[in-house]
């Protein structure tokens, strides 16, 4: 029995990679210095895994921007606009991901979307009908040599060819992506051959699409792919995760692979079928440690569950996390301020490696003193969790009735009341919520947290920032303003810090995309809101102007998905509790005079189960949680929501059922392509498609924005349309934001003259 790792976080326990990337982008360090930081992180993470007993260390899990993008570069599948004149290098990756790099010509960034049902974002490969593939970037090979130099064995971890094609988009013309599979397999065969020449024994090919309900052509592609790669000299571990693959049992067990990894956290029930059917000569990798949550594993329970399989298969069984530990914070040891009773219930990525070692101890000899101590510790954690219940919250959820989920009147009646109240022009202009979090703001927050300045001083200075933000918006000519969220560290963490039943960490960062990291709250108990969270800031901002200022909230579904949620009750129960807490805030905002309230749900689609047959149950409770949060207000209060990175076609009915008065969405990178769902469905409410890609530092021109608004107006009636950026502006600078918004306002005014 071996301990295995499918991948490790790359950002570092103190976000060393994030800071090095941003210094490089600003021109403060050289590419060589950036590479040195990356190399140091890889060595540290490999050593931790080796110390835990991992024999084959993952290579390919490290990326300067995104591992799918790294693979695209390796396969020479880089858009022409980002190539430049030389070879593919690190700057090429940044031009694709950001639209800009220290070298090369700026160009529109490639599309970015969620990786299956996670909060990690990948850069979508762009494939042309005549696309060919060959090895063009050497990062994988260089890192294998690094591992060998340290005296360890490398296991390349890369996205499998069928999943790569599935996640890619077609450009220039519509065509069947699977027609590119033969060329792609030639490149993968060359890649595996190169790995073998470097002494690699095992290669992990990730095919997470196996958790989907695949059509026959994609199933055939899986069969064809692994029959073709069977001739490669390396052993292949076929890995899938994020859901059960038992519905593909016959397909998968007939494949000529040396090993198979199963996610037994999301789908423990599939073990029995695969253990029976997978040949005993094939390695079975049991993904029993949760790679996507931070709660310590029930090791004693896990040992009992898998002991018979481990005993039967002996040398041909591995124990592993359910998926890459990319989705976990790095190291719990650096958390010095967590309450001890909470800290003992947690395991970050490094501690999950220890859990695997402890699980191996239980499986080897359950009667040993060390094994007995592990079992006793599990019992103590269960007792601590049971003490966290809040009966008042449980009772309040139980008392909910259907009318608690519904607005007073249907949208058409609400719309008339709101139009009469706000008298907004054609194409009302707004932003999504946040404005630049400057170094001065972050420094101010840091000094306040350290006690170096008083609460009064902190508040006074943030009020000045808020006043400046309002004045800038008024000068620009924006119609519905926001206060800018200078007081907020993160759109979820800020609320997590103020809710009962929710804790937070100092260094529990996980990567979202590029250098962007988030620090998810810990939902450890029943959730409630002890006091108002945003009312003071919203009313202060509204006092500065006659124009409406939106109250800005994060919705219950997003707070749930972007938190590390408890595992002892269902996710729909947690979402309902959070929905009640947000509802209380919405009502308080309305009563304080805030007439437009935005409840952001960017993670709404992210929570969908991977199998469509499981969607409806999720959509029912997710929609209800949002409606519960929004339904306590009068018709005159306009409820907005915001979504990003979403393919809306298959969930548009559920989005309409949320019954938000206005929805803003991210559409600029797709060039308004995502609006087809709203057009085909005849979406009844108002909509603001983003016309400014805030994930790129590039400033769109007036003409570009006019073109996008005109495209939107051809798909959606103009009286339903709002104009706004794709997302919040927190990560941008004022030097980028002000000219971009000035162009946005100019473009809107031009279209008002033309269409109004």
From TrEMBL:
Family annotation (HAMAP family): Meth_synth
Catalyses which reaction(s): 5-methyltetrahydropteroyltri-L-glutamate + L-homocysteine = tetrahydropteroyltri-L-glutamate + L-methionine
Entry's family note: Belongs to the vitamin-B12 independent methionine synthase family.
Keyword Zinc part of the UniProt annotation: yes
Pathways involved: Amino-acid biosynthesis; L-methionine biosynthesis via de novo pathway; L-methionine from L-homocysteine (MetE route): step 1/1
Pfam family, any one: Meth_synt_2
InterPro entries, sorted: Cbl-indep_Met_Synth_N, Cobalamin-indep_Met_synthase, Met_Synth_C/arc, UROD/MetE-like_sf
UniProt KW keywords: Amino-acid biosynthesis, Metal-binding, Methionine biosynthesis, Methyltransferase, Repeat, Transferase, Zinc
Sequence ranges assigned to domain Cobalamin-independent methionine synthase MetE N-terminal in this UniProt record: 4-310
Binding site residues for Zn(2+): 642, 644, 666, 727
GO molecular function per UniProt: 5-methyltetrahydropteroyltriglutamate-homocysteine S-methyltransferase activity
Enzyme Commission number(s) from the entry: 2.1.1.14
The name this protein goes by in its record: 5-methyltetrahydropteroyltriglutamate--homocysteine methyltransferase
Active site as annotated: 695
């Amino acid at each position: 029995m071996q301990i295995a790792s499918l991948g490790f976080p790359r950002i570092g326990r103190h976000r060393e990679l994030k800071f090095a990337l941003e210094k490089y982008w600003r021109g403060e360090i050289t590419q060589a210095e950036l590479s040195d930081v990356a190399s140091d992180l890889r060595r540290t993470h490999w050593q931790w895994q080796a110390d835990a007993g991992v024999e084959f260390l993952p290579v390919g899990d490290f990326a300067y921007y995104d591992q799918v993008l790294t693979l695209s570069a390796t396969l020479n599948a880089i858009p022409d606009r980002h190539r430049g004149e030389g070879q593919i290098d690190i700057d090429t990756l940044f031009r694709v991901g950001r639209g800009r790099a220290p070298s090369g010509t700026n160009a529109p960034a490639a599309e970015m979307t969620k990786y299956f049902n996670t909060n990690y974002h990948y850069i979508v490969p762009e494939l042309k009908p005549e696309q060919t593939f060959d090895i063009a970037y050497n990062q994988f090979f260089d890192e294998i040599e690094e591992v060998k130099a340290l005296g360890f064995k490398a296991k390349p971890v890369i996205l499998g060819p069928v999943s790569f094609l599935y996640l890619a988009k077609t450009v220039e013309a519509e065509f069947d992506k699977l027609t590119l599979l033969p060329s792609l397999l030639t490149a993968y065969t060359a890649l595996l051959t190169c790995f073998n020449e470097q002494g690699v024994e095992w290669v992990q090919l990730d095919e997470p699409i196996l958790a989907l309900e695949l059509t026959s052509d994609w199933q055939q592609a899986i069969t064809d792919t692994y029959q073709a790669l069977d001739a490669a000299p390396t052993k292949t571990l076929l890995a899938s995760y994020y859901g059960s693959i038992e519905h593909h049992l016959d397909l998968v067990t007939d494949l000529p692979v040396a090993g198979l990894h199963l996610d037994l956290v999301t789908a423990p029930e599939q073990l029995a079928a695969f253990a029976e059917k997978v040949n005993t000569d094939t390695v079975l990798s049991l993904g029993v440690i949760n790679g996507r949550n931070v709660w310590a594993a029930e090791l004693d329970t896990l040992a009992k569950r898998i002991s018979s399989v481990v005993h039967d298969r002996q040398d041909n069984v591995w124990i592993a996390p359910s998926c890459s530990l990319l989705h976990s914070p790095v190291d719990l040891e650096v958390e010095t301020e967590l309450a001890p009773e909470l800290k003992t219930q947690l395991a970050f990525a490094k501690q999950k490696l220890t859990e695997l070692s402890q699980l191996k101890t239980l499986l080897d000899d359950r009667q040993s003193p060390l094994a007995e101590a592990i079992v006793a510790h599990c019992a103590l954690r269960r007792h601590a969790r049971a003490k966290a219940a809040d009966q008042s919250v449980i009772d309040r959820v139980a008392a909910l009735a259907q009318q608690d989920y519904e607005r007073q009147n249907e949208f058409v009646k609400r719309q008339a009341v709101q139009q009469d109240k706000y008298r907004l022009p054609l194409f009302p202009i707004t932003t999504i919520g946040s404005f630049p979090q400057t170094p001065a703001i972050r420094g101010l927050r840091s000094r306040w947290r350290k006690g170096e300045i008083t609460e009064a001083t902190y508040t006074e200075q943030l009020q000045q920032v808020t006043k400046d933000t309002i004045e800038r918006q008024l000068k620009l000519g924006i119609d519905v303003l926001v206060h800018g969220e200078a007081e907020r560290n993160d759109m979820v963490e800020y609320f997590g810090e103020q809710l009962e039943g929710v804790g937070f960490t100092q260094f529990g960062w996980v990567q979202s995309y590029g250098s962007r990291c988030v620090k998810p709250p810990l939902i450890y108990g029943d959730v409630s809101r002890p006091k108002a969270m945003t009312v003071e800031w919203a009313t202060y901002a509204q006092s500065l102007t006659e124009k409406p200022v939106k109250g800005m909230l994060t919705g219950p579904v997003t707070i749930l998905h972007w938190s590390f949620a408890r595992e002892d009750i269902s996710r729909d129960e947690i979402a309902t509790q959070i929905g009640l807490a947000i509802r209380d805030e919405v009502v308080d905002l309305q009563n304080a005079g805030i007439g437009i309230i935005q409840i952001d749900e960017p993670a709404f689609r992210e929570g969908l189960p991977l199998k469509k047959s499981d969607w409806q149950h999720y959509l029912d409770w997710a929609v209800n949680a949002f409606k519960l949060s929004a339904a306590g207000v009068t018709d005159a209060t306009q409820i907005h929501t915001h979504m990003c990175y979403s393919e809306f076609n298959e969930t548009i009915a559920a989005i309409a059922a949320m019954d938000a008065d206005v929805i803003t969405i991210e559409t600029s990178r797709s060039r308004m392509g995502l609006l087809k769902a709203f057009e085909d469905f005849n979406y009844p409410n108002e909509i603001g498609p983003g016309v400014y890609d805030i994930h790129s530092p590039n400033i769109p021109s007036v003409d570009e924005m006019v073109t996008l608004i005109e495209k939107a107006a051809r798909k959606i009636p103009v009286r339903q349309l709002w104009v706004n950026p794709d997302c919040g502006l927190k990560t941008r600078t004022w030097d980028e934001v002000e000219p971009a918004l000035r162009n946005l306002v100019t473009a809107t005014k031009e279209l008002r003259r033309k269409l109004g």
